Fold this sequence. Notes:
There is one protein chain. By secondary structure, the protein is mainly β. The protein has two domains: 52-125, Roll (SH3 type barrels), CATH 2.30.30; 133-232, Immunoglobulin-like (Sandwich), CATH 2.60.40. 6% of the residues lie in helices and 47% in strands. Strands 1, 4, 5, 6, 7 and 8 form a six-stranded mixed β-sheet that branches. A five-stranded mixed β-sheet has the order 10-16-15-12-13, with no helix packed on it. A three-stranded antiparallel β-sheet has the order 9-11-14, with no helix packed on it. A hairpin with a 3-residue loop joins strand 15 and strand 16 (221-232). The termini are far apart.
Amino acid sequence: MKRLVLLTGLLAALAGCAPGDTPPPPTPIPVTATQAIPTPTPLPPTAAPVEIPVKVTAELANCRFGPGIVYLTLNEISNGRTLTAVGRDVTSTWWQVEDPINPGGHCWVSADVTDEEGDTSLLIVVPAPFVTVTKVELRVEPNRIVVGCNEFPQTVFFEAAVTTNGPTLLTWQWEASNGVVSDVGTLIFEESGTQLINEFYRINAPNEYWVKLNILTPNEVVEKVSFPVSCNP
Length: 233
């Protein structure tokens, strides 16, 4: 009886191992490659700004808006005072210094009136500043007209005093309340200072008039003046 059981078990085992019943091979598990994380390239350290002491040797040194005598003088520095130079022009003949009168501001002094206490070639080159119109004063003459109603037309004259802080090319245009707009005019400033622009218009009837001077370059500025015109029958 035991032999029969053993034989039956052996046949069952052989049947399970038949050639047609070979189990499929195991599915391989994909191996994910670890992606290399690039190491960031360290940035080079930023060079600290160079500051060099410069001592005023003139009786009074002009500290100007830009590197040259054509620029507006912002203040005067007394002899013997030490300033902090933070920049230079391309020719190393002017130093940009911290303005001792205006904290946080800068101005320019000539190398001819200073003694430098360091290697000024290490100073950064600073471009000349952008010149602007700093003031416009506009007046009309007469500033009020009262005439007989049969005395038109009347002529009014306008004068604008324009001030810049350095050399520049000024462009401008007049505009009036009666619809008249002038051509664009030009004016050359060879240095800082004030120049005059004049114009006149003819008024044909009583009214409240105004005129504008539009500064187009180097920066936009608008100045306006009003004047009444009336008449008596």
